[in-house]
Amino acid sequence: MSTPDPAPSARGAEFGRRLGVPVVHGLYRPRTLGAWKVPATGPLIFAVNHSNFADGPLLMGSSPRPVHFLIKKEMFRGPMGAFLNGLGQLSIDRESADRAAVTRALKVLDGGGVLGIFPEGTRGEGDFASLRSGLAYFAVRSGAPVVPVAVLGSAGARSRLIPGLPPLRTRIDLVFGEPFEAGDHSGRRTRRAMDEATVRIQKRLAAHLENARRLTRR
Predict the structure, then answer these.
(1) pLDDT tens by residue, 63-101
(2) For residues 117 and 138, is the Cβ–Cβ distance under 8 A?
(3) Buried b (16+ CB within 10 A) or exposed e, 111-131
(4) Is residue 4 part of a domain?
(5) Domain that holds residue 195
(6) Over 80: is that where the pLDDT of 120 sits?
(7) With helix as H, strand as E and coil as C, how does the chain read?
(8) Burial zone of 3 (CB within 10 Å; 0-12 exposed, 13-18 middle, 19+ buried)
(9) Any domain includes 211
(10) How many separate domains does the chain show?
(11) Which residues contact 33 (CB under 8 A, 6 or more apart)?
């Protein structure tokens, strides 16, 4: 008989948040806007645009609540895997239907935690122009509200000291939006319902990103 996957560590995610605060503020100049909009309790999904490897750690160190991110399984190799697991982060195979990852992510939401998702699936322009269906599934399946998060300033120039990351002391804005429900209250979980939810989500995320750019003048 197989042993069920344990629920991701809520304590680990909280430790990751506390660890991330001094690290993020020591390396960069993050500015957090709209954090007061984030519900203090209850299940929640952060939908984050993604243009740099640093986006996840930046949010972990700036969020008012600990976050369990879905992270590609390739990042869980060797000692890094033990570290990420200890911080309550979730490994997912992006090339297949990873049922174990889905189950563990739903456990986060069932337990009233925060699930972090990059709905574009991978790093790119970070403009929410193309979304995968995973975010809609988790939002509709759990009923958890979605909070759009725009990370602005991490794209573009790269550090010579730390390849792939923004230059040290770069000002980066993290803008939290209003929570919203992705479902249509019908209870449907069909392919069509997921597609419709994805369209609704894309419109809300794109509008939030536009407002965030206007607010930060980026």
Answers:
(1) 999 999 998 889 999 999 999 999 999 998 877 778 898
(2) yes
(3) eebbbbbbbbbebeebebeeb
(4) no
(5) 10-216
(6) no
(7) CCCCCCCCCHHHHHHHHHHHHHHHHHHCEEEEECHHHCCCCCCEEEEECCCCCCHHHHHHCCCCCCCEEEEEHHHHCCHHHHHHHHCCCEEECCCCCCHHHHHHHHHHHHCCCEEEECCCCCCCCCCCCCCCCHHHHHHHHHCCCEEEEEEECCCCCCCCCCCCCCCCCCEEEEEECCCECCCCCCCCCCHHHHHHHHHHHHHHHHHHHHHHHHHHCC
(8) exposed
(9) yes
(10) 1
(11) 173, 174, 175, 176, 212, 215, 216
Q: Which two tokens stand for residue 104?
A: 């563990």
Return d(Cα 1, Cα 153) in angstroms, integer: 49
What CATH number does the domain containing 139 carry?
3.40.1130.10
Q: Let me know: does 141 contact 187? Beta carbons within 8 Å.
A: no
pLDDT band at 130 (very low <50, low <70, confident <90, very high): very low
When mean pLDDT is compared across 25-34, 108-117, 131-140, the lowest value belongs to: 131-140
- What letter represents residue 132's amino acid? R
Question: Which two tokens mark 50?
Answer: 């993604």
Note whether residue 2 is domain-resident.
no
On whether residue 3 sits in a domain, the answer given is no
